[in-house]
Structure formats: structure tokens, C-alpha cells
Amino acid sequence: MNRENPDRKSGRIRFPVLAILALLGAFVLLLWLSTHTDGGVEGFQALPEPSEAKLQWAFVTRDGGELSEYGCLLPDAGRLEDLAGMPVEITVCTADKFMNLIAAGAPVDVATRCYADPKLKRFETSGKTENLQQLLDRELPGFQLPSKFRDWCGNTKGDVYAYPHTISIGRPAEVPSAGVVMLANKQLLEAYSISLDSFSQKEAAVNALKTIRKAEPQVIPSYIDLISLQQMFGARTVNEKGVWQDKFSQEETLEALEFMNCLYRERLLSRDVFTMTQGYLLSQLREEKVFLVSTGPLYPLLQALPEDDPLWEVYEIVGPIVPDSGKPFQFQQNYDEQYASTIFLTGSDFPKVQVRLLLWFYCQNMEPSPEQRQAADAGGLGTVLEAGTGTPAPKAVGGIYEEYAQPEIPYEILFSHYADTRLANIFESVESYRSAQEVRIITSTPESEVEQIYRETLLEMENRNSGLLVQWKQNKYWQATLLAAPEE
């Protein structure tokens, strides 16, 4: 007969008893700590005081402001707080991150989109942004937006969801001058005796860039993009008869592509030019890593910098390059670039602040009527109208992103294809294909085949219904010119 060992039996009894005693002791210890300690234990610290209420203002940019240099391109927080009349917290993000923030329920009261695309445009009518007139009806009864303002901002449909930061909503303004065509490094110009005239002819410009490539291998010879060359070589989005046309289908674009192909084959053009953002370009200029620059982001970037910025001591304005055709440089006629606009999100805890900002924006372009002033006074915002009327629009919101637009044309109408799903899909398909072909033509096509690939690209774009998009733009441009015509 097998007998159980008495020691093993007593061990099995002793273990549960000890475990219970240990748990009891731990409980007593925690109870003592909770009543006798002075807050040193993390789990029993007092809750922090609630933070100060802040208006959440998002700025949607192409690169999300990932580089530290991007800070000087955005508004100063102090300036925004003056406009809002309360503390402001700024968030800089890409369009995708902005959409994710909204989907996750993150608090956003105001959003300034520093460029336009179909995704951002369609968001306006998603139900998550305020109809500007309905916002005013709730918070400032009696303040009516005039029909001219609604037509200008609302694609002639009457509803307005975004305030476009242009200088021309209610009155004609002077067309922006060229100002800056290209920048070249002053020190290198002097060191290698390169004259400013070298950048007025294509061959001379190529020779100057070759000099820099050989003598300064650590310096990037140039950042020159297609849109800048299209303008220098005379391409324009409106022909002599005042009809909208696609710049890419013009012979000046072929000349620009051939020139870029030449620069790339000679190792004079950096591939970074295809993906460059304003922040990246500014960092390259600050560090003097590039000799010659002429890109789309350059002009608005320089608008954002103060006149005494050190950059002007390092770089000299040069150009433009004269094309083979001899056509004049086109700047004011190319207004298919991006512009900034501001939307107000629904469900904000600060609707009165949203209205305050809207009134301030409104006063930059429209003279308030007596009825509007009366409504503002009744709502306690009369001082905002007085402060804003006649005050130059600040660079804080939008001014730095006014690119190559002809001001007397209503921007929103020209970009109305963004809000149409079918046309937006055509636009995205054509733009994606065209961008890929541009890179192919410039970087991997033999010189003798550039024109052939370009012609094939035009045919494929037609197959993707680019003609339908051009017809839409031609029709909308005609509407826009009628709206902008002086009242008799």
C-alpha cells in the first residue's frame, strides 16, 4: 500500500495560506499608502488644472510643414490671436492628415487650405464645414453676404463654404508683376565672372551651369521646373481671342521639355525638382546648396520673406531666358496656380470667433453696407468691421500663396471642376499621367525622341478625356469673365 508523504501534504496546505496572507498584506500596505503619503505615489496625485481654451486652427500644406524652415512661411501665432481675439493653437498638416483628424473627431475650429485639390474642395460640402451665410444667420442675424460675393466665392451656385484669400473679390486690382524669375548665387557669380546676361539665352545659361558643375561639385547647378520655363517661353492659359487653353499642348511646352532634357543629360538639373516643396527649397537656399533656381514654389516663398531677409544678400535676381520663338515672358496670364482659402468647421465651441474672423476677412475686399454695419453693431462686432475696413490684407492668411493669378477673374469658378466628381477624376487621371510623362521625357528619353514622346502624351491625354476638362474650363472662364465685367 502506498502512503502519502505527510510533508508533501502539509506543503500543499501551507502554500494557499501563504498566498492569501501575502495578498492581504499587499492590500493593507496600499491602504496605508493612500492615507499617509503626501502625493509621492503617481496613482494618487491630484488632477491637473484644465488647460486654457484655445481656438484650434489647422493649416493644410502640401508637405505638412515637416521641415523647421517652414515656420517662417506660415502666419505668426500672435497675429492670428489678434484676429481671433483669443489664444490660438496652430496645427500644420497634409491634406490626408487633416482628413484623418476630422474623421477621428479631433477638435478643429478653423482650417486654412494653402492650396486647392479635389479632395479638399469636395470636403466643403461634406456637412462638416459651415455654410458662411447660415453661420452668419445663426450668430449675427441681419448680416447678409451680397450676391456679388456669393457668386464670386460660390461657383455661381449661391452657397459659400470657403473664403478665398485673394486680393480681388470686390474690386479690380493690379496684376502681380513678374518680380522674380530666377535667382542665382551672388558669390558664385562673382567668383567665376558669370555675367547676369548669361541667363537671357539658353546656350549661355547652359555654359554657366557647366562652369559651376565643374568648379563646385558640392553645389547643385540648378532647380528649374516646367511651369517656370513655360512662363519664360511664352505659354499662356488664355489665347489671343480670350479662350481658355491648356498650356501643356502648346509648342512652348515642347521647347521647355527639350531644354530640361538637355539640362538633365548634362547633369545640370537635380531630380529633386520634381518633388520639391517650399520648405525644402527654402532650406536649400538658406544653406547655399544650389546655384540657380526657377521653380513654381519660388515666387510665393519669396513673397513670404521680409525685405531684409539674409537670403537677398546671397542670391541675385536673373533672367528670364529668351525662347527660340522670341515670345515675351508670360506671367500675368497664367492663373491656374493654387490659392489659399479658409473654412470654418461645424460643431465648434467658438462660433462667435468664427464669425469675427469671417467679418475681418470680408472687410479686406468688400465695403460693408449700412445694413451690415448695423447688424455687426447689434451683435457686438462693430469694432471688428471698423478695424478691418481699409486695412491691407495680411500675409498671415493666404497672401503668401497668391501665385500667378489674374486678379479680376473669380478664382472659385476657375477651379469648380474640383467639386465635380467626374471631372475631378478626369483631372486626377490626366495630371497623374502627364506628371509621369514629364519625368520620363526629361530624365530617360534620348534627345531625338523627346518630340515623339511628347506627341504621344498629348494623344493619350485626349484618350483620358482631357478635352472634356478643357471644354469645361473654357465654359467656366467665359462665365467668370462675364461676372468680372464692370457693371454698367
Topology:
Layout: H1 6-36, E1 55-60, H2 77-84, E2 88-93, H3 95-103, E3 110-113, H4 118-123, H5 132-139, H6 147-153, E4 163-164, E5 182-185, H7 186-191, H8 202-215, E6 220-224, H9 226-232, H10 251-265, H11 278-286, E7 290-294, H12 298-304, H13 311-314, E8 315-318, E9 341-344, H14 351-363, H15 370-378, H16 382-388, H17 411-414, H18 421-444, H19 450-463, H20 466-484
Parallel strand pairs: 1-2, 1-3, 6-7
Antiparallel strand pairs: 3-9, 4-9, 5-7, 5-8
Please characterize this protein's 3D structure.
The protein has helices spanning about 5-35, 75-85, 95-105, 120-125, 130-140, 145-155, 185-190, 200-215, 225-230, 250-265, 280-285, 300-305, 310-315, 350-365, 370-380, 380-390, 410-415, 420-445, 450-465, 465-485; strands at about 55-60, 90-95, 110-115, 165, 180-185, 220-225, 290-295, 315-320, 340-345. The chain is α/β, with parallel strands linked by helices and about 500 residues long. It folds into three domains: about 55-175 and about 340-410, D-Maltodextrin-Binding Protein, domain 2; about 180-320, Periplasmic binding protein-like II (D-Maltodextrin-Binding Protein, domain 2, 3-Layer(aba) Sandwich); about 420-485. Strands 2-1-3-9-4 form a five-stranded mixed sheet. Strands 6-7-5-8 form a four-stranded mixed sheet. Helix 14 (about 350-365) runs parallel beside helix 16 (about 380-390) and helix 15 crosses helix 16. The longest helix has about 30 residues, at about 5-35. It is globular, with a radius of gyration of 30 Å. Mean pLDDT is about 80; it is low at about 35-50, about 170-180 and about 390-405.
